[in-house]
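Our collaborator T.R. sent over the components below with a one-line note: 'Predict the complex.' Nothing else. No constraints on interfaces, no templates requested, no preferences about which chain binds where. So this is a plain run: every listed entity goes in together, and whatever single assembly comes back becomes the starting point for the next discussion.
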Amino acid sequence: MNEKPRELYGAIARLQDEERARIPFEANLGALLEVVGGARQPKPRRAPLWLVWSSAVATSVGLTLGILWTLGAFAPAPELAPQLAPSPQLETPPATPDVLTATAGMVVQPVGPAQTLVFADQTQLIVASGAHLSVIGEAQVTLHSGTLSFAGAHRANNGWLLKAGPYEVSVLGTQFEMHWQPEAERLTVIVSQGSVRVSGPGGAQVVAAGHDWASGEQTAATADPDRTTEPTAAEADPTQAPSEPVASSIGEQARSPDPKKKPTPPRAPDWKALYERGDYVAALAVVEELGSESLLKKLSADELTMLADTARFAKDISLASTVLKRLRTRFAGGTQAQLAAYTLGQIAGDDDEASRWFETYLEEAPEGELRREAMGRLLELHTRTKSDKARALAKAYLNTYPHGPHAPLARLLEAEKGVE
Amino acid sequence: MTTARKILSNQAFDDPQALLEAFKARDQRAIAEVYRQHVKGITRLVQRVLGPDNERDDLVQEAFMCAIEGAAGFRGDASNFGAWLNQIAVMRVRQRIRKRRLRRWLSFREPEAMPERVSSVGQPAERLALSRAYHILGQLNADDRIVFGLRFIDRQSIPEIAELCKISCATVKRRLTHADARFRLLAGKDMILRDWLVGEVEL
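Returned assembly:
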């Protein structure tokens, strides 16, 4: 039995186990205990079931609720009913921050628990207690003061814009938090996933996951061990730590003694580090910021391969194809150029183009490490034609790799030849 | 966090039944102890079914809240209390998947546009495979997705899954067959996953 699917499932389980080891369970327990220990009002008793159903039957509202119930929007799993307490609390979700559907013109100033706003694109903003926020449009808000957390769709350049005083935060990724103190004109942005572009009096800058950005004060990287920026001079050598606040940890203006002086954004994050972290969308955003054309001219073959993978994994197949073709031009004859041919076959838009690239790979690398895979892919592509070429390929495949993953397919082609 | 650490280090429940009774009475030390004993297992179940997900931690918290709210009506004893907690977790996950599918259906939203958490561990190729696999699993219905995650990713036995989901073994097998076929069909069209999926998996 081929073990490949099991390898996939095993790899998934392993990754999840590693990720689980990083979850701050203790912090989550603290939050749970706060909710449990908080002064919760007793919930009103549920009306008797016969009364509920009588009302439901009497009105068409009952029918509507029944449909939603059938769709599973609110109902608990029926199979658990015997085990669970008949308490009405079980049908009510546990205490969560209030959720509102955002509409243009809405002003939010939560004084109690945090307020969650859900937008049309399913983006969620959690507005902390004491913050003051206005909804300007479907994808635009102004933070007048306080803290908000942003969790948006996982797409680059999704059009979201968040304003705070003179600053604008354009969303390039998924999750971040921002804090605005209007009196001090100080904005802090903490990016946990994806990236954002912060623009303001100091210019514009992309801030990637694992980084904080602060105007008018030292930029503090998060405690995330996977952070991607190099340590600042002060971090690397504590003896060099400035005795007064600096505008930013990076750049000449960072040494400005006046925190209100022109704030300087931090240096652009390294797209290769983002690639290594698996944050391909953010890496691609940085590449676009730097200008992919200039990178195509100066990157090494290995770096171009990495850039192609970044584009490929971020689903920008057009850029991946451009990068791979440039790699083949600049480093013709090299191993990376050969591998680029194989990858071009993988991402080709149609069967003919894919066949050409796999054949190119086999010609250029007759003993290449991906020879078996290239032959297998070609076999798949030629199967539909059942041509002599396909049969010759099947025969060659079986001679070389009688137990390869495409051997059953090759035998099938061989058998069809016998029938004919 | 400090409070939690203090409570964790102050636990004093040698008798599981006493722990259960205290948990039912909403004793904070008992809640902390139950959480400590079961949170990893419950998180594992949620992970297996949902994969990288922004709402993973919320779901785990919800499961515990649900358990705390409903503990007074729990009629079992300490020996099956853990199983009861796991059933609640699976129930919450199932509800969440159904709600999402309903929301997606109502908003005509493509799955790609929904928020997606990115795993932060492992090699890029594996992370990508993980992400793609759960993207595809997101297209299965809740029941199929649950049995798939528990059987193939978590390697639970069919009787275990049957008990967890409160269904028969035959139903588990039927759902597994359907889920496996659907997953392979979709994964076979995926550029990243197709190479992982040559071969059969024993149900």
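Summary for T.R.: Confidence is low (pLDDT under 50) at residues 39-45, 70-97, 217-266 of chain A.
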